[in-house]
Design goal:
Strand content: under 5%
Shape: globular
Number of domains: 2
Largest sheet: 2 strands, antiparallel
Number of strands: 2
Order of helices and strands: HHHHHHHEEHHH
Number of helices: 10
Structural class: mainly alpha
Helix content: over 70%
Radius of gyration: 26 Å
């Protein structure tokens, strides 16, 4: 074999091997970086999720503790809501930064818990933020990166904040006037369970029982006009801030 040809051929093979090694390194290297990045995101979202629930978990305890002293109860609840608002603001900065950078991350990328945290923080944000990220979350649900049930809860909450009637009955608010939970206005109460089943939500009576409420559709329809007035009143206050 011609020596010059042999050297040229050998160098060509070496270049091909080097290129292959570079591709392999890039593939495994980038995979490792992505994995480390995901682990960091999961860790960060775990902390965010804990903070999101910290003060919310104390609400029921506070209501029960001061059940016989409504003035003190309102004072303590006001403190909790203030702390909750601060925590939600910090969480929102972190979560919107993640979404804006990576898009909506599915459970297959960051796990069920971290994926749920993304939803919870947007769910607990203000109306403008919810409206901004609603199209992204609708697309995420379509692509199986967000649970359809989670999207349903957000749709209900946006409807409530916009002064409209909710679809799935998920929004139940504490009424300081009656000192008990009140189901926010909903569309077609008679068929609530049909709509909930279609989206994957459980029976409405079971959902309400977790808040010690009994579902009485006939009574709810009788109470609905007064509930709608109360809803309009509190939403006018919320929208002022």
């Amino acid at each position: 074999m011609n020596t010059r040809f042999f050297l040229h051929f050998s160098l060509k093979i070496m270049k091909m091997k080097s290129a292959s090694l570079l591709i392999v390194f890039m593939f495994f290297g980038f995979s490792s970086f992505a994995q480390i990045d995901n682990l960091e995101l999961i860790k960060q979202l775990d902390s965010i999720g804990r903070l999101d629930q910290l003060y919310r978990n104390r609400l029921e305890i506070t209501r029960a503790r001061f059940a016989t002293d409504t003035i003190q109860q309102k004072t303590e609840l006001h403190k909790l809501f203030s702390l909750m608002k601060q925590a939600d603001s910090l969480n929102l900065i972190a979560v919107t930064s993640i979404i804006n950078k990576y898009g909506w991350l599915g459970a297959d990328e960051i796990g069920e818990l971290a994926n749920s945290t993304l939803f919870m923080v947007i769910q607990h944000a203000g109306l403008k933020t919810q409206e901004k990220y609603l199209p992204i979350m609708r697309l995420a649900a379509k692509n199986k990166k967000l649970k359809a049930t989670s999207l349903a809860l957000l749709e209900d909450r946006i409807a409530m904040f916009q002064g409209r009637k909710q679809i799935y009955g998920s929004q139940v608010a504490w009424n300081l006037k009656t000192n008990k939970y009140t189901i926010m206005p909903m569309l077609d109460p008679d068929n609530i369970d049909i709509r909930r089943a279609e989206i994957g939500l459980g029976p409405y009576s079971v959902y309400l029982s977790e808040m010690n409420l009994v579902w009485d559709v006939d009574q709810y329809k009788k109470d609905l006009p007064s509930i709608e007035l109360w809803h309009k009143e509190i939403m006018s206050k919320v929208n002022k801030h």
